[in-house]
């Protein structure tokens, strides 16, 4: 059995390792432990050994100096059985397939041109959310902002990726699922069993033939997978795994980031007042803010960049 020269860390317990030291806010627990054990420390999360780097120099050493050594993901059961045998961006091993997938995401799926084509979707859903917020405010009851943010995030992502809404607030509205059910499906990976599939997109492609135009990201993924010039072929499992990446990564992360931004602004009234003043000066009170207005709103843009850089929107 190999014995590694590991950095210092707390003594692990049998079975649970150091999980007893990780609280409900794991990043804060890790920060407190790093004060005692230093910027590099060893932990055991159950039976899994983990080395934690928690300083600027440690991050630079791991993510920049030795990025090639740390770039791979561990082989897990979820990667094999839920993520279609490691065929998505999250679980795929570093190599030609992963590099090609990253390039396709950057230059095709999430390109400026593609996102611009889908701007109307984002505009419609954000305006619908604002209408709902005004209606909720008129009742005099407390508004739970995160519920509205999560709803608009789900609807934007499902329309951009799949071409239609999968959730609405009213259960009797004809929606396939409720917001709570859809969120559970995302968390559990349940939709991989067929709740969400690309079959209807294939049917439309066959019916329209040469007249077919991609209307959403699934259409685009199917077109890209048929490209004979790809360095590594992408099969239908690969397409479905990329759908999983787009939906899973674009829901909670977006809504949580906006929720944190609103929370921080409410705690900093001076910043909120300055942002409001800039919006009133540039936009006025007669129209909505558009994505084209962002370059003219440097203070608001700085707030967005600050939150995106500081907020832990993903899971630990």
From TrEMBL:
Domain of life from the UniProt record: Eukaryota
UniProt GO molecular function: heme binding; iron ion binding; monooxygenase activity; oxidoreductase activity, acting on paired donors, with incorporation or reduction of molecular oxygen
UniProt entry keywords in alphabetical sequence: Heme, Iron, Metal-binding, Oxidoreductase
Pfam families in the record: p450 (PF00067)
InterPro entries linked: Cyt_P450 (IPR001128), Cyt_P450_E_grp-I (IPR002401), Cyt_P450_sf (IPR036396)
Entry's Gene Ontology BP terms: secondary metabolite biosynthetic process
Family assignment from sequence similarity: Belongs to the cytochrome P450 family.
Name under which the protein is recorded: Uncharacterized protein
Organism: Eleusine coracana subsp. coracana
Highest classification ranks of the organism: Eukaryota, Viridiplantae, Streptophyta, Embryophyta, Tracheophyta
